[in-house]
Amino acid sequence: MSALNENIELEKKVKSILAFFSAGNYEEVILRTKVLLKKYPDLIDLHNILALAYNGINKQKEGIAILEDVILKQPKNIHILNNLGMMHSTLNNFNTSYKFLNKALEIKPDFFQAANNLSILYLKVNKANEAIEVLKKFLNKENLKNYIFNFSLGNAYQQGGDFKNARIYYKNCLEINPNKADADKAISLMTNYKKDDSKHLESMKKKINNKLSNIDSMLLNYSLGKAYEDLGNYSKSLNHLKMANKINDDLSDYKIEDEKKIFNNIKIIFKKNFEKKDRNYISNKKIIFIVGMPRSGTSLVEQILSSNKKIYGAGELPFITNFAENLFFKDKTKLKYQTLEKIEENKFDNLNRSYFEKLNFFNIKENIITDKAPFNFKWIGLIFKIFPNCKIIHCKRDSMDICWSNYKNFFRSLTMGYSNNFNNLANYYNLYLDLMKFWKNKFEDKIYDIEYEKLVHNPEKEIQNLVNYCEVEWSKDYLNFHKNKKTVTTASLAQVRSPMYKSSVRKWEKFGEELNLLKKLIN
């Protein structure tokens, strides 16, 4: 084959690979790219595509390994630096991510992709102001027409609590691409449709008849469900929420049977009681873990505690879940260890050290930190192994209020796949109840239960009890938690910036008899 013909053939194969990549068929990309790299091992772009395909199937470690070899050959390749930064950010390797992204921007200060990934990194570590500043450097006429720029800046303002500016950039998104709905979803979280923004509702009602992608249709239905709930039209709200969850469920590969195996395996690991052993902490900071089902009040409790200027609200830190999965599981459901005592004690010392090292990037000055990742309820045994003297707050709420709130809200996390249909939702909730009973039998006096209903009906008394358990000083700021300016990234971002209210208690009852099926499925 002549050199010209060979180049034409190579170009065809690369175009084919890129087409599979655009379609999200990453397995096919990996298969074809590996074959092509055997013949053309020096083509850097092929290595980059292969790494991004691994990233697409959540195998960031494999992608990073590929790019680390490439960067040795081309240390100033800004695209490789950017992708390394992005993948390390996904793995919560914050310092490493910052190093690569910052280096890419030093080489090319106007490289928007790296700046955008840096803003995402800043938001992950509760630095909304820094994210805004990074993006504002790219504020020009050209980027005001860029959907990603506007959406990222909207997210930064929203998470920082500046809803006015967030709306400006989300509305820009809707003008740039009217058929995308992630901006609609973001606006709906900040909007009380009973009081304002009827124009946005009218635009969503028109858009629902357009030819939308499955994802955009799903997001728009969640948003309309929220809007009609605000307006008290519970029948319409339920119809849109059912449609949204049906699409979400179809897109998900969630299997409740896998979840049951994981919960059972956790109880196997921690079957035997263990002695509390003091650790050589590398930090004197005190950790308060806030756990419970999503939508049980974890954000509210953290917002209250972090209103004290001496307490830092770190939000939903992923560290404990990452530690647990790497330590205990060979894959999603198969255990590495059948019993806890077979794990060397120094591994828990290392996890203690790693936790604080990851926190370094947050630049936390306060000596008390809250970690409010709800799913840490799975790993209470591990938390006590790593932090023997920590505080654990378990947020409880009416079972139907929790389950209904899980169903009606959209969560980007893959771990929330259970929330898209009543059967999986009820099964998961029952697994949670069973596991919490298991932990309470082991650590009864170590876990503090706070009930959402009692908190909203008698906040001063319940907050005082909470503060006493945490062994922190009283502050009047706790009662004005809604004035707290900390970054909030959850679906509760608007609620926790409002004074305490009781209207969400037993609100599920307004949605009619169809929800009785869910009630029957819950223990």
Overview of this protein structure:
The structure is a single chain. This protein has 523 residues and is mainly α. It has 24 helices and five strands. The chain has helices at residues 3-22, 26-39, 44-56, 60-73, 78-90, 94-107, 112-124, 128-136, 147-159, 163-176, 182-190, 198-207, 214-230, 234-251, 256-269, 298-305, 319-328, 345-359, 380-386, 399-408, 422-443, 452-457, 459-470, 516-521; strands at 286-291, 311-313, 368-371, 391-396, 447-451. Strands 2-3-1-4-5 form a five-stranded parallel beta sheet. The protein starts with a helix and ends with a helix. The model has no long low-confidence stretch (mean pLDDT 91).
What is the secondary structure topology, with strand pairs?
Elements: H1 3-22, H2 26-39, H3 44-56, H4 60-73, H5 78-90, H6 94-107, H7 112-124, H8 128-136, H9 147-159, H10 163-176, H11 182-190, H12 198-207, H13 214-230, H14 234-251, H15 256-269, E1 286-291, H16 298-305, E2 311-313, H17 319-328, H18 345-359, E3 368-371, H19 380-386, E4 391-396, H20 399-408, H21 422-443, E5 447-451, H22 452-457, H23 459-470, H24 516-521
Helix pairs in contact: 1-2, 2-3, 3-4, 4-5, 5-6, 5-7, 6-7, 7-8, 7-9, 8-9, 9-10, 10-11, 11-13, 12-13, 13-14, 15-21, 20-21
Strand content: under 5%
Q: What is the count of β-strands? A: 5
Distance between the termini: 70 Å
Structural class: mainly alpha
What integer is the average pLDDT? Answer: 91
What is the chain-wise order of helices and strands? HHHHHHHHHHHHHHHEHEHHEHEHHEHHH
Can you count the helices? Answer: 24
Radius of gyration from CA coordinates = 24 Å
Helix content: 55-70%
Shape: globular
